[in-house]
Structure formats: structure tokens, C-alpha cells
Amino acid sequence: MSAAARTTAPHHKAPSLAGFSPHAPSVTLPLRFMVAGMLALFVGVSLLVLRPAMLATYHYNQYVIAATHLFVLGWICTIVMGAMYQLVPVALETKLYSEKLAAWQFAFHLVGFTGMVWMFWTWNMKQVGHFGSVLLVGVGLFVYNIARTLLRVPRWNVIATAVASALVWLSLAVSVGLTLAVGKCSYEAASGPASGGPLGVFLHGLKAIAAFTARFDQIGAMHAHAHLGVVGVFIMLIVGISYKLVPMFTLSDIQSSRRARASVTLLNAGLLGVFVAILLRHPLKFAFALLVVAGLACYGLEIVAILRARKRRSLDWGLKSFLTAISLLAPLSILALVLSWPGLPLTTLTGRLENVYGFLGLAGVVSFAIMGMFYKIIPFLVWYGSYSTQIGLRKVPSLADLYSPGLQAAGYWAYLAGLAATTIAILLGNAAAVTGACVLLALSLATLALNVAKILSHLVRPRIEPLAPRPTLADNLSAQPRPHPVPQGT
């Protein structure tokens, strides 16, 4: 039989990337986290547009703290948890310990962060502690689930080390946050009629914690808590997971395992020192900040080496967003060293620089990186959930058909412009300029929302068509060119 006769109708093969590893959990598990996280992001950006003074004034007030926790716990932490449930089993080649435990954790996390943000906004610290306890239960379930997953890892590597480190910092960050909330409450009942029994013992314990936290400077304690969460959890996870994702999406490999390990080790050592130094207002803060920056420098050098060795030369918009985000670590590191200089006074300028530092860390590095990986993860999850069982049986769309690259490119440039404009507006302390800049960010998020809606629509209404009939032997023979008749001579 000829080669033409053996030809079958073309169809899309299942991609062999993260979403389709046999180790990955059900696609509905990470998707619920990602949808909830996006809703929190849209609410947060809407708040910035409606109340620009939150970025134009100093950040130590109830509304800024509420909005910050909405972004950190509602948007970033929710997305990161969902992504870890998907990526950790894939990156480390093992099964997630328990999907049922993850579903319970989602419920605790949703109730916890929503209540905390609401209570921060009204500055009801007692209720912040209550909802924070609910969040702590969720974080405990998450840490336990991922830790049990790590125990199944067949080969321990730098990625596993980074994930384990992030779990430790997450536990510490939440514990410190709850301790700070306890310190802002009063406990008159501990000396009143209700002071006896188990409740009295509990109240006396809280009162002792409040007395302990009163020894520390409140702004310093808040900054130390923030660094545990942002650097220890989110930056650490970006560093660790990108050692798997960047080589995978660019067809490359880690070029120096020693350099990759050094980046995680220096980050851990530097962050521990930075936390203690900020908490105690110690001048060694600058030296420990240098250690963190050295770790990020090792990470940057390794990513550059991975990209130079890549076999896939073209970079899609999702990867461009991720790489742009981590490139912002360079100016952010310089700003961190300036702000950690011993004896730097708190002035209007340094206060605005602190606002820029926090904004670029959360919106510039972490959020932009997450949005870039959105386009790498969500399309794969939806494609797999809707079309993986139809391969070879029906004609299905390709991954590129699930969203609009044009909208993605427009969102990239709008977000970059919004970051630059918002940074300038914060430095000027101009609320009107903050509003205009945040509108640019909102427009970028609108493109993301449209694309995500387009992607998710394939879960509701899959675009499946019947395969074209396979050509028969007769069809192939009839398609062969026929010889022209030879003219007969006269």
C-alpha cells in the first residue's frame, strides 16, 4: 500500500507539558483557586481606582492594610496555592497527597481571607484574629498536604528545597501576623469574672502575647511580617518553580546546579537575618539584605544561562510577562538596599519609596509573574479537561485557539505602562495620577478577564467537530495524476 493510502486525517495531539503529567491532580482543583484569586484581584484593583489615596499616602492605615491583605491573601496566595497543587506533583514527579484535603483547605482559606479583609477595613482586630484563625487552619492543611507530597519525592532537588523553604516561611508569616493581631486587642475579661477556667487560661495567654508584641516597634514588626510573606513565600516559589518551568517551556536545562542551589541558600539565610534585623531595628539589616540580593543575583544569572541555551528561540507573551516580572527584581533589589541603609530617617520621600517598594514587589514582580504563567497553565488545564478524551475521535481546537494572542499582547503593554505610571504617581504623591495609572492596570486586567472567559467557555461548551472521513484506496488512486495520451503520428 502506498504512503498516501496510509495517511490519516490530521488531529491535535495532547501536549506533553505540565497540565498533562500523570502526576497532576484533577483540573477542577487548581481552577477553583485561580477563579477565586482572579475575583479578588479585580476587587482589589477596583479599590485602588476608587480610593487612590491608599497609594498616595503612607501605608500604615487600616484601608491600606485591608487592601494589601486582599491582594496578598485573596489574589496572590490563592493563586499560588492552586498552582502548587498542580505544579509541585508535576515538577517533583509525584502524586499530590490528598485532593480531598485540598478541597477542605480551599473552603477555610476563602472564609478566612474574606473575613480578615473585611475586619481590617473596619479595624475590628478581635474579629481579624477570629478569621485569621480560620485562615490558619487552611494554611495548616495546605502545608501538611504539600509536606506529605514532598515526602514522596523520588529525587530531592533544588526545586523541592525551595518549596519546602516556602512552606516554612508561610507558616511563620501567618503565625507572626496572628501574633500582631493579638497584640492590638485588649483582654479585660482576663482580669474579670470570666478569668477562671479554660477560657480564662486562654485569655491570659493572649494577654501575655499582647504584652510581648508591645515590646517591638509596630511598623518594624509589620515590615518584618511582610518580608516573610513576599520574599519567603512568593519570591522563593518563583525562584524554585521557574527552575522547572523556564527550561520546560524554552526546551532548555539548568546550566549550573551549584548556582541554583546557592540562590535558594542565600535567600533563606538572608531572609532569616532580615526578619530579625527589621524586627529589632538592627543596623545589620543592610548586610542581610545584601545576602538576599546575592541570592537573587545567582538566580538571575542562572535564568540568563538557561535562556541562552534554549532550543526554542521564540518566546510567547506568557513567558515574556514572566521574564519581565523577574527582571524587575533588579531595580527592586537596589531600592531594598537603599531602604535598608542604617539610620535612614522616615521622611516624606522615604515613605513614598517604601510605598513604591511594596507596590513593585506585589504588583510588579509577583502579580506580573503569575499573570504570565496564567497563560501557560489555565489553557492546558481547560484543554485537558475538555478535549483529552476526544483525541483521535473528533477534531478539537489547538491550545492557541483557546484565547486571543492579540488581547494578551495588548494586556502585556497596558500592564507595563500601568506599572510605570503608578510608580511615578506614588513618588509624586498625586492621587489623581494614581487613579489614571490604575485605570491602565484595570484595562490590562480586562484583557486578561476576556481571555480567561474565552478559555473557560471551552469547559462549558467544547468546540468538537467530527473528523474528516479517511481517504480510501480508491480515493487515493483517483487522486493520482493520469498520464497524458501520446499523440499518434500521421
Q: How much helical structure, as a percent, in the residues?
A: over 70%
Sheet with the most strands?
A: 2 strands, antiparallel
The helix tally amounts to 16
Pairing-aware structural class of the strands and helices?
mainly alpha
The tally of strands reads: 2
The whole-angstrom Rg is: 26 Å
The SSE order reads: HHHHHHHHHHHHHEHHEH
Low-confidence stretches: 1-20
Beta content:
under 5%
Question: Strands of the largest sheet, in order across it?
Answer: 1-2
* Average pLDDT over all residues: 83
- How is the quaternary structure best described? single chain
Specify the overall morphology.
globular
Distance between the termini: 41 Å
Task: Note the topology.
Layout: H1 28-50, H2 53-56, H3 62-91, H4 99-122, H5 125-150, H6 158-183, H7 197-213, H8 218-250, H9 257-280, H10 285-308, H11 317-327, H12 329-339, H13 348-387, E1 394-395, H14 405-428, H15 431-460, E2 465-466, H16 473-478
Antiparallel strand pairs: 1-2
Helix pairs in contact: 1-3, 1-4, 1-15, 3-4, 3-5, 3-8, 3-13, 4-5, 5-6, 6-7, 6-8, 6-9, 8-9, 8-10, 8-13, 9-10, 10-12, 11-13, 12-13, 13-14, 13-15, 14-15
Structure description:
The protein is mainly α and 490 residues long. The protein has a domain at 17-155. The protein contains 16 helices and 2 strands. It has helices at residues 28-50, 53-56, 62-91, 99-122, 125-150, 158-183, 197-213, 218-250, 257-280, 285-308, 317-327, 329-339, 348-387, 405-428, 431-460, 473-478; strands at 394-395, 465-466. The chain has a two-stranded antiparallel sheet with strand order 1-2. Helix 1 (28-50) runs parallel beside helix 4 and helix 5 (125-150) packs antiparallel against helix 6. The longest helix is centred in the last third of the chain and has 40 residues, at 348-387. It is globular, with a radius of gyration of 26 Å. 40% of the residues are buried. The model is unreliable at 1-20 (pLDDT under 50).
